[in-house]
Design a protein that fits this description.
It is a multi-pass membrane protein. Residues 74-184 form the VTT domain. Belongs to the TVP38/TMEM64 family. Keywords: Cell membrane, Membrane, Transmembrane, Transmembrane helix. By secondary structure, the chain is mainly α. It is 82% helix and 0% strand. It is built from 9 helices and no strands. Helix 4 (70-108) runs antiparallel to helix 9.
Length: 198
């Protein structure tokens, strides 16, 4: 399969995922799930343990195939499952997804980056990889603070000589703070918006 065909297929998959998310959002809005936190939580509770597993799977997939901003998933996790279990589900899903992204990039190499991300983004961070010790430090800082494109950086890390052990350590230790900050900040924003709409 040529690189052009692969890129088109990935773009089509991303577009399909985006359309599916939009349609699901419209359905959820019409069903009142997005205008009432209680109704949304009751719907998820009716799914039993499958609700939590599905959300972890969603968070995992959205790291590997970025369709929605990761911070949005963090907000959804807290709204659906509360601050403690929402954090746990976010953490597990995002960490597994990060490890999968690293594994995919490790096996497919740097050409994969051009298929999934813009050349502008790749150029912005490519100089980080010039020295492996420098990349590891910058990568750890980026994962620790919620300001950088984490999904892309996990793929980029997979194209370097970073070891699995170092990558896994950075992800497992660095993700809790950024997930907590995303969750807290977006939860406050969500409460303000729903307060205005209500």
């Amino acid at each position: 399969m040529s690189r052009g065909v692969e890129k088109t297929a990935l773009q089509a998959a991303s577009l399909f995922g985006l359309i599916l998310c939009v349609l699901t959002g419209i359905w959820a809005w019409q069903a009142g799930l997005l205008t009432s936190q209680e109704r949304l939580q009751a719907f998820v509770a009716s799914c039993g343990a499958a609700g939590g597993l599905l959300f972890v799977a969603f968070q995992m997939v959205q790291v590997v195939v970025p369709v929605l901003p990761g911070g949005l998933g963090c907000l959804v996790g807290v709204v659906l499952f509360g601050p403690v279990m929402g954090f746990v589900y976010n953490y597990v899903g995002i960490c597994i997804g990060s490890l999968l992204a690293f594994a995919v990039a490790r096996n497919c190499g740097r050409p994969l980056l051009s298929l999934l991300f813009s050349e502008k983004l790749i150029a912005k961070y490519s100089d980080w990889t010039e020295r492996n010790d420098r990349f590891a430090r910058l990568f750890a800082l980026a994962i620790f603070f919620p300001v950088a494109p984490d999904d892309f950086l996990c793929y980029l890390a997979g194209t370097t000589s970073m070891t699995w052990r170092r990558f896994t350590t950075i992800i497992l230790l660095g993700k809790p703070l950024s997930i907590a900050l995303y969750s807290l900040g977006l939860t406050v924003l969500f409460q303000q918006i729903t307060g205005w709409l209500g």
